[in-house]
Amino acid sequence: MKTNLKLIIGGLFITTTLFTVSSCKKFLEVEPISSFGNDYVFSNVTNAQKAVLGAYAALGGDQGYGIRLSMYYPYDNDEMMGQGGTPYPDNERRDIAHFNVQPANTQLAGPFNQLYTGIERANICIDNIPKMDAYTNGSAADQKELKRLYGEALTLRAQFYFEVVRNWGDVPAQFTSSINVSDPYNGRTDRDTIYNRIIRDLAVAAPLVPWRTESSVTSDRISQGAIRALRARYALFRGGYALRSDRTMKRNADYKTFYQIAKDECAIIMARADHKLNSSFQSVFKDGLNAHRFEPNGEILWEVGMTGGSSGVGDSKLGYYNGPRQFTVATPGTTALGNAALTILPTYFYAFDANDRRRDVTCAPYDNNLELTLRPRSMVTMLDGKFRRDWQTPSVLTSASQYFGVNWPIIRFSDVLLMFAEVDNELSAGPTAAAKAAYEQVRVRGFGGTASLIGTTPSDYAGFFNAIVRERQFEFGGEGIRKYDLIRWNMLASKIAETKANLALMATRSAPYANLPATMYYTPNQATVVWLNSFYSPSPTAPAGSANVAWVNPATINSTLLAYYAVAFTANKSELLPLPQSVIDANPKLGGQLYGY
Description:
Layout: E1 2-3, E2 13-21, E3 28-37, H1 38-41, H2 45-57, H3 68-72, E4 80-81, H4 93-97, H5 109-128, H6 133-137, H7 140-168, H8 191-205, H9 224-239, E5 242-243, E6 249-250, H10 255-270, H11 281-289, E7 300-304, E8 326-327, E9 336-337, E10 343-344, H12 346-349, H13 359-362, E11 363-364, E12 366-368, E13 374-376, E14 383-384, E15 408-412, H14 413-428, H15 433-446, H16 461-476, H17 482-488, H18 492-507, E16 519-522, E17 547-550, H19 554-564, H20 581-586
Parallel strand pairs: 1-3
Antiparallel strand pairs: 2-3, 4-10, 5-6, 7-15, 8-9, 11-14, 12-13, 16-17
Helix pairs in contact: 2-5, 2-7, 5-7, 7-8, 7-9, 8-9, 9-10, 9-14, 10-14, 14-15, 14-16, 18-19
């Protein structure tokens, strides 16, 4: 959704916007005009569309999924580390990544406030659209579109609340627009109450919104499949573990009720032909998101549309903040474009099977040279690869811009399959044939369609659950999912500890890492990295004509990874962020910080 759109909430007035349907990648082109009262905005279908677009607009930009919600908050986890090095502590993104965040951190208030702006915009639409005369008395086409818009607004509000809750826990909740509220201050609402409400709301929203194949609008607009997939995700979180105000990780006794909701919703999606896996995992990212095209199989059920206009308001820094850099001079280690801020942990790289094609999509051990050839990096400085700048079309390799307009995937069909497999295993006390089939569909695709490579699927409850934990790590690396999965399983603390222990084994070249190569050889001056020796065996004699990179570097593991990775993590505290101090100061009903902050 190409949105240049601004919606300003104030009194009775919101900024509305003109839009035109376009045949290009983004489903709506939006241009701001002027301010009108709610009576005017909700007087016809066209203006109601503009108001809902205003709620969509709160998803993107620097304070949304353009960088902070997608690339600051989900790290550190057992896949990747947020930006390390000095200055640390920085009261900024490094402190968030390494769990040293304080209430005055400069990166908390902007996302928190933008999420609540989105909630308010959605509330205005939810309050007013069903009251429109055309909602009940208009033409069939008008009624259908208004019901769709109402369903979209309910879903947008749910997604904003989900993001607030999974990052901050118990938070203020308001389910009507502020004009209807006499007291602007709300105390905290228990997260279960919020989850219950948004799960109910999506049950209402789903039948109001068309399926993908029933509508020509693409995946940056919410479809019924997206709503049902999100409802399954929210139900899993409602049924999962969460950090409570007494600083214990708990899961409610009724969790299977919500797992059943998740199973039912996933089964509905899986029974239809609207969404399926792309046969190529790489294509989802290289030929889809990075090429500014929609994935043709409907694998991405919903993605946040970014403007692509070099704007921190509605654009994204995917491919600039993260991924390989582009060097602009010939001398190594000097001026380069891009931040290369997210580091793939070598323990994650080596967790992949050597035949799993997802490894080399997710992990990018190189930078780009001035000559547009690749310069390999060591395993301890490897970068995330799904949103790499050298996959983007049109080319941005030599662009000094920070904004490339790459959309952020909220949920994919592989998530639906793996959620189904997970909850079916839980509800059946072991995997049924259907759960195994869903799991194997994802895994076989990861191995290029070769079923003989995937190994034997476990048949017992614990074995299958652990297989799901691993498979979700391999499938969704770098997509902002892993940390939150580990929290709902109550595994974040143990996985961080396990990762640190394995990094320490790597640093001493101990089993199972004793045979890793000290040096990797490659063919120089190539547009792709052509490795000349195995990642899994000691280094051979240097091949003729090769170049090389120091691969296993124990000193860097100690000085960089172990020095910064999750260094301040505290169990039963770090699973959530503190509320921004400015929010605490402004609202006396919040009662101060919780969770040990």
